[in-house]
# Entry
Amino acid sequence: MTPKTLALAGALILATAGAAAAHITLETGEAPAGGAYKAVLRVGHGCEGKATTAVRVQIPDGVIDAKPMPKPGWTLETTTGAYAEPVELWGETLTEGVREIAWSGGELPDDWYDEFTFRARLTDGLAGQTVYFPVVQECGETVTRWIGIPAEGQDAEDIEEPAPSLNVTTAVTQ
Amino acid sequence: MAVRILGSLVLMLLLLGAAGSARAHAVVTGTEPLDGTVLAGPPSEVVIGFNEPVALIRAQVLGPDGQDVLEPDGGRAGEDGLHLDLPEGLARGTYTVSYHVVSLDGHPVAGSLVFSIGAASASGSQVEDDSAGWRWSFVAARVLLYLGLFGAAGGVAYALLVRPLEPLREEVRRIGSAAALVGLAAAVMALGLQGGLLLGGPPVILADPVTWAAGLSSTFGRAALCAMLGLALVWAGSRVRRTRGADLLAASGAVVALASFGLSGHVVTAGPGGLTIPPLLIHSTLAAFWVGSLLPLLRALAVPAEGTAPTVQRFSRQAILAVPVLLLAGLVLAWIQVRRPGALATTEYGRILLLKVVLVGALLGLAALNRLSLTPALARHIPGAGRRLGWSIRAEIALVVPILAATAALGTTPPPRALLAQGAPADLHAHEEHGHMRSERRLTLSADGFVAEVALAPGRIGPNGVSIALRDPRGRDLDVPEVTLRLSNAGKGIAPLVRPAERTGPGLWHVADLHLAVPGTWTLELDVLVSDFERQTATADLTVE
# Structure
């Protein structure tokens, strides 16, 4: 074990430590099942100091009818795919819908803050669960993936780059 | 008798069940600067890319004045291969880079390249390529070792199967013990020469214990120790007064000696999962029987007795059963190594193999002559038949030596298979193959979406290279955008060393220059980005010595 080896090990340990400072998170972290949910992704920094050029979010199973809010200066794209299981909405059976939303072509400097918004419905089956919206933040060539989902028994705090999460509560009786 | 032989074979296979597989030889994928380039200004480093992690043994960069300009710690195995840091202010002229590295299967890979700064020197510096001397000395020692192993183990098999009568039986034991001594001496020599081949350098390094330690710690070292144990048992069993116990001792020695073939070499590393070892053991066992029978047969003919003709006929009958199996196993092994018929002509390995096939063809011709003509003639007491058969057997012996030399040369030549990137099929459970003398550690990790074969070389403290082969759960190559390796040692309070892996091919990744500072149990976590939005992690423990 040379001093060089120790120094290298030390540098690597330090490099991994400072990651948990700020994440991409959802503005509203809790919402009832069976209703509409306005998701606001808060982007407080770029990737390693670089300006954010794209934000992509995956819509998890059980979250349906997702509609992104357009954003001046950003190109909006959605990817449609099959739902995990067909869902009833307004008397119709939906088997597919938006599964991924991408805002790209913008330029959000590291020092600035912005929000990326979409709206969706939370199906009744989600009641009592935590759902995760994995986000890929692109800063030119550099990519930060906010896609970490805690394994069973794992503390969410231990995840380095956690996916934004939403606690779904029991539906409000109407 | 047949039951005992079968039992021995089964035991041998069981002994070798633990022997693992490793990836192919390291192959250079590119260099920077390119060989033969004339550069405008001095480069800051030389990079030699490999298709898999390598460990640096020795490197030098000789300048126009013939002096090595590489700093003592200027060479390292980096992310994308071997990096040699050059000092600033290099003079104009021609530089010669040479390097010796060890690939995952413990085989040395050496190479060199030449580049010039400004303009080429009138006389470029010359790097002495000392590897050829080591290689051929090693091959020669291997031939002697084969002869010793085959003579000793084959002699035991001959005594058991052909059952010569006294005093020829005693003669066979004397030949066996002499062959065992030859093999023992050759194994010791080969250990030192393997070390020299690994380290490179002038012959005087044989006086350095480090050279021997290097030979011993290679995969060949393990095989040589196994061979020596077996040979010592055969020798002991053949020297004492002949009893049932002595015969048993010699027989067990023969089994152990032959088992050494399954512990080292290209076939052993060809994978998958040690499946290639049985044909290798069958091939070497039957070859040992054949080769080891030649001298005893010659002695039987030289001492004409009542039992000579029946003995030779018994051998002939048994050999006719062994030969097709021997050839079939050889064909399987050749296919494993070569894969493409075209490679027979275009690679050095293929050409040596063709030479071996031609020599074996001649040997088979002699065997057919013995079987069809000379042995029946001997049985019919035709005058001169014994003498003619004796000459034919001498010719067989004369052919066996170059065949064994070709075999040993194949062992030091990269097989065409090494040029094809291929991963071993994975096991669904995480496990570690412990091997004290191994120069690598292999692990299989799995998660819902992937199965990963991870090889850590050399698996000891200090710099390590890691190669990763990813498959989907159905066993197909899995191409993913990103793979990250984390190694932590909770016991020693070491937080994860996080290293992104570099993609080297479809489903293939590697991490070079991973420094493991302390021995003990490390936790290896493999983060695989199975899709854009999903990262899966597999974890396994790893013991580092």
Q: What stands out?
A: Residues 2-21+132-331 of chain B form one domain. The two ends of chain B are 44 Å apart (CA to CA).
